[in-house]
User: Fold these one by one.
Assistant:
Number 1:
Amino acid sequence: MKPGSLFLIFLAYGLVMGITGLAFYGLAGFSQGGTDTLITPDLQLLNDPYIIQILLFSIKQAGLSALLSVLLAIPLARAIYFLPRLAGRTLFLKLCLLSFVMPTLVLITGLVALSGRSGLLTPWLGEDWNLYGLQGILLAHIYLNMPLAVRVLCQQLNHIPDTSWRLAQQLKFNRWQLFYRVEWPAVQQTIWLLLAFIFVLCFNSFAVVLALGGGPASTTLEVAIYQALKYDFNLSEALTLAWLQFLIAGLIFLVMARMGKVRWLSADTHSQRWQPQWPVWQRHVYSAGYYLSWLVLLLPMIALLPSVIDARVEQISLAVMLDSTLYSLLLASGSAILATLLAWWLLLAVRHAVNVHKPGWRVLFQWLATHTLVAPAMVLSTGLYILLLPLIDLERWGITWLLLLNSVLLLPFVVSQIQPRLLQFDQQYHYLAQNLKLSPVQSVQVIWPFVRPVISSAFSLALLLALGDVAVFSIFGGSERMTLPWLIYSYAGSYRIAEAALVSLLLLALCAILVWLFERSYHRPVKGTAAAPRNSTSEYNKQET
Amino acid sequence: MDWKNKLLLSLATGLLLFNNLTYAGIKTLNIYTYDSFVSEWGPGPQLEKAFEAQCQCDIKFVAAEDGVSILNRMRIEGKKSKADVLLGLDNGLMEETRRLGFVKTHELPLDHLKAELNWQDKQFMPFDYGYFAFIYDSRKISQPANSLSELINSDVQVIYQDPRTSTPGQGLMTWMKAVYGDKTAEQWQQLAGHTVTVTKGWWEAYSMFLEGGSDYVLSYTTSPAYHAVVEGHNHYKAALFSEGHVTQTEVAAIAHTSQQPELAREFIRFLTSEAAQKIIPVTNWMLPVIDQVELPDAFDQLIQPEQIGFSPAEIAQQRKQWLREWRRSASQ
């Protein structure tokens, strides 16, 4: 490994681990009475039946959310893969991305307008329907995460090489064997990963649980941490709960992520796909499910429209709206760029571990790179805030920390997007590249066409997620300028609910435009890829023809 | 992509430069407050303009998320705090702030304040207050509940805020305790039977209500005034309860760290002046703390409840235990 890369790796890991370390230190080291001892976790809490109840509920809702999201996503992804004649398949995948990045507060408004007490759909949902409670939480979590699973599974299915299908045909596999021998191996590892990923996202869920939970019975650890930190300023309780969350989410993620053996399928994504034909009835059932999901995903967005009609547009300052839009884009692109760069550097270490066949190191590096997925975001932001506030002028430097923290929180998403493609590249070309003794510039030139599509999609995912950030902004954002989500909060916080709905719609539209732009660039042919690896060129050619 | 990035970068640099411009020569008064107070449509901008016209100073608002975040910020900053004035704490936070020694005595007369406030505090000055109340839509409900117990023992759908995370929620908790004392737990259970949801903060609950999510929502007696003055709608009304209502009083104080307590004191005096008291009700949607303030007619239509409740000291002392009672009985 070259000293330059080594330096960048150290820098990236130092930063990522440093932020978490500093945040925990900020909480533990804070002394109110002037004593210098570290605050220790309060283990008594583990005997509190209330905490146990919270813990069990967190696990239950996260487990159910993950399971249902993935179970629903599997048939949808198969429909999209096996039925090329379905209308609007690419558009549907874009919609999936939009659903996944949809700011939760926009989704909640949509769901309430749709199936709340006087929702548009409520009359048809039966007498006993009640949005609030476990069902509401699950509904929102499935809405947010099932589309992600569909996208990922589709991608994975697309990697099944033609040759596998041909071979299966020659062996006269029946439908069950086709599924078990061809499809399952292609998605198995991804399914475990998805389950783990969605579990952790829902385990740490905050806004959805509070808005749709219906009462104190539905409380997650994150909510308890928030309460301890904010309303009681009880740092030792917050720390205990944070460690608990960190450990449980971290363990579950680690175990599940390790479940499936890594099995790299052929990288080829051919233009001429050869697939088995499905019987007619199956095609009909799957198509119906597919078109139904179109409706389901669109409805919460459409439901926002009626409330916008009340908005007093003349009261909304166009300048403020434009300014917030620009500011949101600026901050989000900053975080996304930083996150992508960091992910690249962090993955250098993971790739090296794979190339020299050190699976233990690979897991460690990978875990460190994505550990912010399981670290409670509330603790990271508050811990840093407590540490930094007395030391530096946050009015001035707040934005820098906001960018840093946001990018670190985005890392799990970016890393998981880029990593498979990079490992694939190494598997195929690492030795060749080594033998050719490429200069750093040359090696970037070689790898770039291969990874450009995933980098672009990882960046756009990061950008979209960062656009929805409220948690970090509420702590580090200055009061002079507002981002769009913050503008929604300000409107809603001063009775201007219809205006808040209007801005929500604007935010959603902005996300939709970005999704459209990035997905377009993803599929655009790249010039000058003649020297690029065969696979990527063939992928682009597919799009051109 | 490239030119767009460049454009964004140059925009960013421009903004940074702009932010670094400082006003030279005049005193700066740092006021810690909460977000919605200084938002474009909140009282902040108008108060700033009015006060700066008379003080030869520059007001700098530092906005935290909400009242309790102001207190937490003071805790974290300790002696290094730059705050001159703490603006927007409420009666639920007063005792804790006092105990931590974050405020100085204001040494201002209190006799101009409304008699019903019965205000004697030497450190905190009230600048607005409101009664908690359940709001309903009179187009849908013609016979509103006349008492808290009628509401609790009916089957109407209610949304309120989490007392762990929001001040109205905490207000309801105090209200329940004031009315039911030792028997509060059963009443929470009864209420839970027809509670639609408990939200994190005020606006989540209120917007759900406006979208038809419930029959009643916990808010303030002043909420109907907003709808009347800004939207011209008169159908949102507050239910008057025979047991009486509890209040939330928002207060300001001089920070212990202030290097210019005189200027801070001037600002606090200004807050209860007629000029400021005319601005606050129609921007923060609470009641003025002095009599004879000229306000839109809608304020005359508001219900006039009887005041009940506990002193700040009592609330501070028992809050934890009340919360435990709530979460036990409301989660069944």
Number 2:
Amino acid sequence: MSEGIGARVLRKEDKRFITGKGRYTDDIIEPNQAYAAFVRSPHAHAKVNGIDASAALAMDGVVDVLNGHQLTGDGIGNIICGWGVTSKDGTPMNMGAWSALATDTVRYVGDAVAVVIADSKEIAKLAAESVVVDYETLPVVVGSVEALADGAPQIHENAPGNLIFDWEIGNKEPTDAALASAEHIVEMDIVNNRLAPNPMEPRSAIATFNESEDHYTLYTTSQNPHVARLVLSAFYNVAPEHKLRVIAPDVGGGFGSKIYIYPEEITCLWASMKTNRSVKWTSDRTEAFLTDAHGRDHVTHATMGLDKNHKIVGLKVNTKANLGAYMSLFSSATPTYLYATLLSGQYNIENVYADVQGVYTNTVPVDAYRGAGRPEASFVMERMMETAARQLGVDPAELRLKNFVKEFPHQTPVIMAYDSGDFAANQKQAMDAADYKGFEKRRAEAAKRGKLRGIGFSNYIEACGIAPSAAVGSLGAGVGLWESAEVRVNPVGTIEILTGSHSHGQGHETTFTQIVAERFGLPTENISIVHGDTDKVQFGMGTYGSRSGAVGMSAIVKAMDKVEAKVKKIGAHVLEASEDDIIIEDGAVKVKGTDKQMLWHEVGLAAYTAHNIPEGMEPGLKESAFYDPSNFTFPAGCYICEVEVDPETGVTKIIQFTASDDFGTIINPMIVEGQVHGGLAQGIGQAMFEGVVYDPDGQQLSASYMDYCMPRADDVPMYQVMHQSTECPGNPLGMKGCGEAGAIGSPPAVINAITDAIGNNNLNMPATPSAVWAALQEASKQAAE
Amino acid sequence: MELKDTRVIKADPATVWKAILDPEVLKACVPGCQEMTGNAEQGFTATVVQRVGPVKATFKGIVNLSDMNAPNSLTISGEGQGGVAGFAKGGADVTLTPNGEGTELTYNVEAKVGGKLAQLGSRIIDSFASKMADQFFQKFQDIVEGGGAPAASTAQPVKQGGFWAWLKRLFGGA
Amino acid sequence: MYTTKYHKASDAANAASLLGASPEAKILAGGQTLIPTMKQRLAAPTDLIDISGIAELRGVTIEARKKLGVLKAKGGETITIGAATTHYEVANNADLAAACPAITGLAANIGDPAVRHRGTIGGSIANNDPAADYPAALLALGATIHTTSRDISADDFFTGMFSTALNDGEVIKSVSFQAPAAAGYGKFPVPASRYAMVGVFVAKSIDGDVRVSVTGAGDDGVFRHAGLESALTSDWSPASAAGVNVGAEGLLSDIHGNAAYRANLIGVMAKRAVESA
């Protein structure tokens, strides 16, 4: 069976993962390593009047206790936000200082004020418990709306009223005018719940300072080790880049939360220099809830206008985005450029306007989490569409069909230019598979059993493959978002692909080898992937935003183009033929129309022995490429969810979930289906189970699995996953990306289905049994009135 | 968590007031109080041990009496650091109103916890706080109605069995 | 986890004496609550006394009823379950399933497989978590708790959330109860922890006495529900249970559900418990 593009090649990485042979950061053991334990604030907002570490320092096995004043005193820089967002009035964002260890003020529960370095983890923890911190508590605010209210506690001096930015996009006056003259108006308040990322492997770091070479090595759980090195070097002044090696070995899931460079990694590096020991820290699950960047947390008011033919004439959206106590690396981009640029959805809308306020609160920093901005946009749009259909009394599928973008390229009023798609085709495929026509019959049958059945649509679109560097640069990004690759053909013909993408569950070791196998006709077992080490890979921007396929693999293709060109030259020279007659197939270099050929390994050997290569050609066979995309890619699809609600308990059971996606070219359908399954589970998790809960004092009440509900296998149905693809014109493989679609498209489908079942459109996520039951009570109370 | 309750104590407001200001009474009433030093004017420092199921936490902190309006009302507040467990703080606005032969004691309690106690124990925090408040004022009532002097054994922390089990043991029951 | 000293008790008496020897000692049965609490550093027992290997504390015995007159009617056997018997062993005991399927069904739905293979009935009731399943069963079945020093009725044993009548140095050996004529358990799990948001155990003895207990919902742990008991005494039927107006007074509100929701669930779970009985 072919192992090339389109083959269901089993994941090469799974053997080591499922036999317990993965090598994660916490598995790395350095000689004479010490352990870090952080002293964290139990208060959400307080002044730090003093730290007494005398008891800790007196304990046997304690190497040192370090604090924020020492850290800043050593010139370690404040943590940065890598994307500058400009407010409506042209002013830059108001960003408060974030030191890896707090100096004078703590701003969320879990904010680190000191670190203990000790000979063992147990001693470090015991010593950290003995550190006495004199806190003077300050008033606390946890919600974005409350934080913007007059008289709210002030969290950072240089962000008056806790407003970080007040940003806008789209055409305001025309949108207002369109809404004013619209025949129908749909208006909604929409909340997007706060989520904890919960990768299976918690964050971890082990830093080693080599005094004799003045060099640092950091193993860490990163989705982008080169970006980590760049930021640690350029902004945090830990060490210049050539004196700092960052390695992200096997990483057990990220979902965005491992993009960022957190206080703990910075502190471990610095502490390694201070103590001249290797310093290791591994988060426990509670620390993960308290310190991993959370996702979502939007409060939105949206207004949509439709004309008498039910064509959408305008959409206006206001969103208050809770960014937590400090600005994480991409926190400003997530609720602006990654969100509001998708508010046109799959629809041809002439007038769209959105404004977004980014707000400081006394909560964990909020940043990108699987989907990052796009789930929020699709939730707004698809809840609005379903509500509009209900309000107008029309079929939700018909209403969508009427408003779809049908010609490409399509320029939306909110920056994005959609390059391809066939939204009606995806919708038809999903409706057929879900037997939409037979739904009313099933609803009636369920009613006989005392169950409430509902159906909901979600027609999502996302922008992936981030992103054209010049474009994101003009929007405020601090980095370019290209990707690099190197293809090394060894003298024996085996191939190593060095990629700047990083696999933490995506299966790159499998899919990336498939495109090479396809190109050169080689078995995948002769190809390996090298990634995650700044000393090995030339550079890379990492993996997030469903970019590894569209951008990372495109870079490999570009490098393969160069390899192919050189191979053809060598082949032509050795086989004494014209370059134009050389073809590469089945692992051999052949002269078209003859039986003359060189086997692939003979080409490798020829290149490295250099006994007989064209005059002037450099020996060796190794090429690299940097690929910068020309546009975003636009995966889209139609999801249909069918549920049954038990009115006695409010329990919702998903009976059927149908997903029709347009991902462009698919390299490995098995891996793509797995990505969709995982994304759907996460989206269903957001819709029905997950939610971070804070009390008004900023205490996180859901900081363990006793209270934070992850979806389990028996909570989700057997999905119907299918594809109806159009090729992406923007990259050589025609790929769009599949990593986030499930999480982006599914929440509105679930909520639309549940609200359809219960006859009450007023339902927030997570739609837990108690929330659904309360909405049912409200509906029956309203019906009685 | 906020809760409000009222109980009628068979003693006049002056007697009740005096009992509230008595450090020995206060110490006996704070559930799990092991040590308390200080006075009503300047406040007390206290060590309190609490057990909830397998959890055991020792809180070191302060107890203050404030807004004193003798013999009508005052606020009792406390705050303790429980080490790895986090912190707990609470206050009760207490009002005394003559009620026939006795005194109607109304209390408005607010309790907060932070750190691990909040992160891991949210499902039981409110119940536990209301139980503590109930134990505090029940004990106070018992002492005042019993003549104002705490029994010698009350210096022991209330055991895991809770107030009723403790009471049963105290009187040789169970 | 803080440092602790591990003891393997040879028998129940030895466990009791080891327990009495140190004021900060703890019995380790299945460790499904204690060990996570220790890992969170919220418990620091000086000594752990492991009773899981003690043969006399394990297993289920069923003694046939002595009255011969009513042999055809169900129930009446004396059932004894050793304190260190795991949930898995209870759930998979065929004789017990024949005599009292409500309790084997309850055990089969505690936690997950890992919990069921380690967790024990004695550990569950000694901890008396306000959302645990076994306290509801034992209270409704009118069970007796046998300890190293005495026998305690379930009514006296459960004294509020996380508290029991156990004294220092007292170790549970077993629990016993008479197999009911009919019994059922309706459980609505908290989606996150799968502890009971509400669990209602209904039991009718061979003498016709009805007892109904509720776990998960009370603000001070497991309790008997007088309204449901009286309704089911006069008419043992799902409709009768569903007809009881359950008030929210004294019920728990937390981030998973408020008191009104729990009150509703008590009615629904009681109805389903009777249906399953």
